[in-house]
Automatic annotation (TrEMBL):
GO BP annotations, alphabetical order: secondary metabolite biosynthetic process
Ranges where the FAD-binding domain occurs: 132-365
UniProt-listed NCBIfam families: Rid family detoxifying hydrolase
UniProt similarity note: Belongs to the RutC family.
Keyword Flavoprotein on entry: yes
PANTHER family listed in its UniProt record: FAD-BINDING DOMAIN-CONTAINING PROTEIN-RELATED, HYDROXYLASE, PUTATIVE (AFU_ORTHOLOGUE AFUA_3G01460)-RELATED
Provenance organism: Cyphellophora attinorum
Protein known as: Protein mmf1, mitochondrial
UniProtKB keywords: FAD, Flavoprotein, Oxidoreductase
Superkingdom of the organism of origin: Eukaryota
GO MF annotation terms: FAD binding; oxidoreductase activity
Keyword Thylakoid listed: no
Coiled-coil residues: none
One GO term describing the cellular component: mitochondrion
């Protein structure tokens, strides 16, 4: 394909999704910028559930170009009779004593509508010159050239060279791996909480037969197994239904999760949705979700990552599309300062300064919201979905998360982006680029420190190990450490195994292994063990089996006790790195 050769600043945009296509529209406002999009798919496809863009997304669209917002309004399904009515996504309890109570209202804004990704992107595609979007171009690799330009190679064997690359190439971004290195722990997507999404779309007239609540807006109906949600699409002609739970994306797990017994205790409307999901040909699609751990950088020289390539997020606060639009709005603003090629690295540095911390906190906020959606609330002081005071604590936390994502003014980067200077090409350090105040410093956007992972206690549970026999978790993950409760020689059903010391020790270790693997760790990362024996005569026999499991010899205590639960002779606990 060659080079984008002219006197303008040539911008390669990898990915024609939400961030890429809106940024293309924005950059075309600048006569000296020559942007072209390269999209991996052959065309936009109508898959997955719908979305309802929040207040921050609506503001970002307006900031880039009012035509982008108008297209969204024109192609979406109205959630109210007029665009001046404030509406939100309702998070509703459907299990326990407070069934039917609204736990949170997310994304409150005037003019909120629901839309499929397909309708959204096709509407925006109509706003740009068709010759500037090339489909079927999946990026394979990037190469920085000696003159500062960047060559992009595609899987079809073609290449293109431009002055810079803005990579919006999705959650499996090759550009992210280029920036961080393929072996970096944050280079690839993760699914720490084992989320599984099951989706089906049906005609709205069929949906009205099973739903008793309103269908004109998004509802998220939550309980201890996860949530069930419904939203209207295609101008109200289609109802999108989603089951959000946990497990691997296998047919066996799908069959279990489409049984009423799996959702026992949920209200009748939810069970009706489950019935529809499993009827006929079943769900349209099911897959394991993923997001990204924190990347240390978003740019290097003339390459920057945005959208899901930079900060893929879970859907639990409905802000993935909004964060992509915030990226597009900020890049559109800083490119207003770019006058020549030497400005580009400084523009990318300004973008990273504004966007990195906020976007990464949104990823972590979404993880937390997902845990709340399945009643995993141990990290919130006083929280309990089965008591009034405990429920109020959850509501307060959800309100903080909603305000953090929604109440942000995307306009400051337009006015606070500094004048760009012209250091040598290789220099992108901050003394050449006065720091841009991050959005979190804006009064509408207070920082929320508890969203950092070290402040979150995550309960670990797996069906592959002996269940907890009391009011405790199999393990707690806090920051980078996993604290495993003591394991006795019981199998996954809770039955005590063979009474020999060797077999008992083996079962304890197998249970610890299953719990640690569920938490994303393993026995090889154990730093300390505690062994409890009812008689020190068992010490030598226990050691022979124990050493087979802990060859790296973590620190250990071995204590003789009077007795252990269920009359067993051995119990082992441990602490491990995540």
């Amino acid at each position: 394909m060659g080079s984008l050769s002219n006197d303008k600043i040539s911008v390669i945009i990898l990915g024609g999704g939400i961030a890429g296509i809106t940024l293309l529209r924005g950059l075309l406002q600048y006569s000296h910028i020559d942007p072209v999009v390269y999209e991996a798919t052959q065309c936009y496809r109508d898959v997955g559930g719908g979305m309802a863009l929040h207040k921050n997304a609506i503001g970002a669209m307006e900031s880039i170009d009012p035509a982008i917002k108008n297209s969204y309004f024109r192609n979406a399904n109205s959630m109210a009779a007029d665009d001046e009515t404030e509406l939100s996504t309702h998070v509703v309890m459907v299990e326990g004593p407070f069934t039917g109570e609204i736990l949170a209202r997310l994304g409150t804004a005037k003019g909120r509508k629901t839309i499929s990704r397909y309708d959204l992107l096709n509407g925006w595609f109509d706003l740009v010159p068709k010759e500037r979007v090339h489909f079927g171009k999946r990026s394979h690799s990037l190469e920085e050239l000696s003159d500062g330009s960047v060559r992009c190679s595609f899987e079809d064997g073609t290449t293109v060279t431009g002055d810079c690359v803005i990579a919006a190439d999705g959650i499996h971004s090759k550009s992210r791996q280029f920036l961080l290195s393929k072996d970096h722990p944050a280079a690839r997507p993760v699914n720490h909480d084992k989320w599984l999404s099951i989706n089906r779309q049906i005609p709205m007239e069929d949906g009205l037969k099973v739903l008793t609540g309103p269908t004109e807006y998004v509802r998220i109906m939550i309980g201890p197994r996860g949530y069930i949600s419904t939203s209207p699409l295609h101008k109200g002609k289609t109802l999108s239904m989603t089951l959000m739970t946990t497990g691997e994306a296998t047919q066996e797990n799908l069959d279990v999760r489409l049984e009423h017994s799996y959702w026992a205790g949920y209200d009748q409307e939810c069970l009706s949705v489950v019935s529809v999901m499993r009827s006929g040909s079943g769900p349209d699609v099911f897959w394991n979700l993923a997001d990204h751990d924190r990347a240390p950088i978003y740019h290097r020289n003339n390459v920057v990552i945005i959208g899901d390539a930079a900060h893929a997020t879970m859907p639990f606060i409905g802000n993935g599309a909004a964060q992509a639009l915030e990226d597009s709005a900020v890049l559109h603003a800083v490119f207003a300062k770019v006058q020549q090629k030497e400005d580009v690295p400084l523009a990318f540095q300004a973008f990273e300064t504004v966007r990195k911390e906020r976007s990464q906190l949104v990823v972590e906020a979404s993880r937390e919201a997902g845990r709340i959606d399945r009643y995993d609330v141990g990290h919130i002081p006083g929280a309990d979905p089965y008591t009034r005071d405990g429920l109020d604590a959850i509501k307060k936390r959800f309100k903080e998360i909603g305000a953090f994502t929604n109440e942000v003014d995307v306009s400051p980067p337009v006015t606070i982006a500094p004048p760009l200077h012209h250091p040598p090409y290789q220099t992108t350090t901050s003394h050449h680029n006065p720091p841009v105040p991050p959005l979190s410093a804006h009064p509408k956007h207070p920082p929320i420190l508890p969203l950092h992972p070290q402040h979150v206690l995550h309960q670990i549970h797996t069906d592959a190990a002996a269940p907890a026999a009391g009011p405790y978790s199999q393990a707690i993950k806090a920051g980078g450490t996993i604290y495993c409760s003591g394991q006795i020689p019981a199998d996954a059903s809770g039955q005590i195994v063979d009474s020999s010391i060797t077999a008992s020790t083996r079962q304890c270790c197998e249970n610890l292994k299953a719990v640690l693997e569920e938490a994303g760790s393993g026995l090889g990362k154990v730093v300390r063990c505690g062994v409890y024996l009812t008689d020190m005569e068992y010490f030598q026999e226990m050691n022979v089996e124990y050493e087979k499991w802990f060859g790296h010899k973590p620190a250990r205590s071995c204590i003789a006790v009077k007795q252990l639960p269920k009359g067993v002779k051995v119990e082992i606990d441990c602490i491990a790195l995540a």
